[in-house]
Fold this protein.
Amino acid sequence: MAAVATAWSPLRSSSKEVYCGDLEGAPARLGRAQSAYGALQGGILERRRSWGDAKASPRSKEDTSKPASTEKCRTAPNASFENGINARPPVPSVDERPFDSSAISLSLPPPPDQNKRAGRNSGKHVRMPAAPYDSTARRSSCPVLAIPPTIFHSSRNFAPTDEEDRISEDDEEYDNNRGVVTPADDELLQKAKAAEQQPVVWPERNDEEFERGRALLKTLLCDALSFDADDMAHLVLQIFEECGIPENVGITTSKLQRFIIGVRDRMLDNPYHNWTHIFDVTQTTYCLACKCGLMDRLSSMQRFALITSALCHDLEHPGVNNPFLVASRSDLATLYNDRSVLENHHCCRAFQLMLHSEIQLLSDFASADYTVFRSVVLNNILATDMARHGEYTTKLKRLTEAGTPLEERHLDSQFAMEVIIKCADTSNVLKPFNVAKKWAVRVTDEFFLQGDLERANGMEVTPTCDRQVQERVALQKGFYDFVIGPYYSKVAALLPELASLLDQIKVNREMWNSYDDKMLMDELGSSYLARLPGIGTDGPLKLSVATWNVAAVNNNPFEYWITHQSGEYAKLMNDVQRFVDNPGGRDFVVSEVLTDEMFAELKHDMSKHGFPGLDELERRWVEDYRDRCAISGFLKDKAIGSKRLVSMPDRITNTINSDGRIIYRPSVISGFEGEMGHIPVWWQKWREYTFRTDVHTLDRLSPGAYKVQAVCKMIEPIRHAKYPAITMEEEAISIPLQVLALAIFDCVLVRMLQIIAPRTWQPLKHSLCDAFNKNKSQQVINILAKSYDDADIIFIQEAAASFVDHAKQGLGSKYMVLRPYVLDGYRNQNSMILARKDKFIEGSRADLTEQVGRLAGGRWTAPGDLCAIAIKGVDGSRYLLASFHGDTNGLATIPVLKALNEAFTKSYPDHIVIFGLDANTHKQNSVNCQGIADFQQKFSEMGFASCWGPSPGVHTWTTRNARTYLQPQLQKAVGISDAARKGEVNLKDWIIFYGNQMQAVDSARDNTGNREFAESMVFPTLKSFRRITPLSLACLSVMRTTTTLSARPLGDVRG
């Protein structure tokens, strides 16, 4: 029901732009390879995949693959319901773009806790508690969707002492984590097929609730709000079985279970368009189709397609309607040419899910069966576009007009299915009034949240979504009078079996005459909408707040000196440092490791990819690089660092992930875990990865478009205008020059470690990869669940997109995961916010990220850097919460802070502002570096205060780390003896708020994960704290005067 908010009220469009898009997609390919691997790949957005009304518990029951059901409904020919599948023109295929595998939990969980079960829905907009994220219980939606294996298993004497010199040479934020997909090979195909044999983690059935629901499936008395998520999953499966599963197409119980769980967990946290709505429409479709006799007249394939359509009709609904997506110029609207945007999106997502290599619901369908099934599903889902409502009403009117010949008054089966699913999609009006009014509040809540989003983004507010002028009851009356009444009267005239529906509609419409908004909210407001019982209207006076840059992207296990208890680590790193500082007679010539034969192979590979300037590259190889000393002449060459000849291609090719799969460049400084002891063998792996591994990457120049290319083709030119150290001649051949420099660098590191520690360096690297590169999100969740479960707000920066799922699974019982609409799918560095459910009202949030980003000027923020959310607290206050990760030198911090201040001043003066950020502030201030003191002065002028008090000392640091000699920017390396003294020690992490709204009662730092701080410890540490930044936390006292905040001295924000 995507456009119901504007179905009977004109939309006032806006020319102002707000991004609400979806940059996913490339044509999916049908067939054997797709069913094994290719159908469900790609995508850069990490979408919210949960249901708004209930959350499944982690209990499970194994079910082997077996036929789901025998056919129970037989086809009976009838003149009134002729088979019209081929009577309608074929629907153009929607854009079947690769599926974002992170949409489903891609890991096998431990055995579930059999004592846990999802709570009652009870009609509240509240996520049901999930099991704690620990070793014994973890809610995973579809555990058999395991991550396919990766292709490859898994710095100097001149180090500057001046801090500014060191940090100013930092590489810029770069898209080193592109969305990619590698092609399936035979092994992956076999593993995908074998996945069907794995047991499904399917929720344990509550027999009492199941029997209650089953008895109501064919009635309009089935109240979806009375069931929890597990009950609804079981009842959906029951509907499929009662309808009869088509025979000889390979649909098994386990496939259906995977499919149902996949749909459930892809539904978003919307007040209305959520998992409960999906079940409600599916059950009502079944009920109405049975009542009017349609179900008996459809073939088994049509019945299966009808129920599948209902189950997927709002898949991944974002909580806004089609006109909003068009007015905001979203990429989805662009992709679907402004026509049935959401419905096309639902179709696309539905088939991507069904074709997923680990679901394969349609894998055994013959071509003809697939064509019929797809046509029915597409037509049915597209019919739910409320912009087409008039079209259907007109056609029904024509069929029921007095002058229409009797023989023409019939429905072909396809049109009949569309009519029924449209009825089900608006069926709240058919339910008893005590149910209908709850749904009415839910849908108006969602409308009003869209209006808040429009207002926040400078768009003209859709009339039906404006909470400032609209009344809920008036909206319902209009919906009954202008939308529901005319449509159902025509349906009843054509299908007499459904004439009784009009009686309930008339009863409900009459009931609304006796209501106003106050009466409605008096009845439902405290018990139904409060969502957070047990807290009075006065609310909490204090909030416990934490901020943490979790540094998800740190792909080199050797990059930072770590606190490590192993003597082997200290010996290896000391030996590397001594070798680089004073190679002496152990230095070797570059051509000893990258031989002329290997260069010839390199040139040949680059020639096949059409790289320019290879003759010039060969000349430079012969005259320059070939005979250099590997350590003193290459690794320690500052020009190579300033030209970014190694660091730039390393960032792009080191680690590439998408669809839950991660591939690594065979290198000492990546997560590659294959054997690297023998250079000739390693070299072939390096060439295979660089030149013959095709990856699926987003085309940054064409939003929404994808291209398949080799890893080497991802490397981009280095421009002289940006990096003056590189000459114009070098710029012309900068891509092959980077490939050559990277090959030399990787070869040199392998040989150097073979010389230093031939037997120990690889096992040690594997242990570091296990500690730092694997299960990063789970490590963070474990610390938060263990030590910070009492925090009211946790600001997170630089989290992987997959952290959203991990947080929902591990912390979802206590926290909402507030995230921007657009997540970063390139660098995989995202800011987000965890907000306690007993302190904030879940259905009241609005995403202000794009608005604040535009106020900052756009260039200061990339996708994922900022998360700004407006949300209402149970204390009655409105809050503006923001989380931000600044650039390396902190130059973006002040512009973003000014933008937040401007948004508050102009649009949200009644909100309490709390800002958790990694400001990247430094001891020294300059035009190229944001200093701590200058930052403090500027935010104070805007009326802000911080958790560190009016004048934080230089010894209040939140970053203490140092780079080793095993990373591509050797000029930044610090010796082990100087790690504590010369490493980066700065105050970077802040919690900021308006001084007349809040005050910091207490503040602290934690670099152990146990709410303790070790002042002299260099981190990360191998055991307790594996992140490079600590947590910062504060207890903030909310002042009572914040109920009216308009008269506030804010200072000048123009400078």
Observations:
- Residues 163-175+569-760 form one domain.
- The first strand starts at residue 542 and ends at 549.
- The two ends are 47 Å apart (CA to CA).
- The chain has three domains: 4-144+213-529, 163-175+569-760, 542-554+772-952+987-1043.
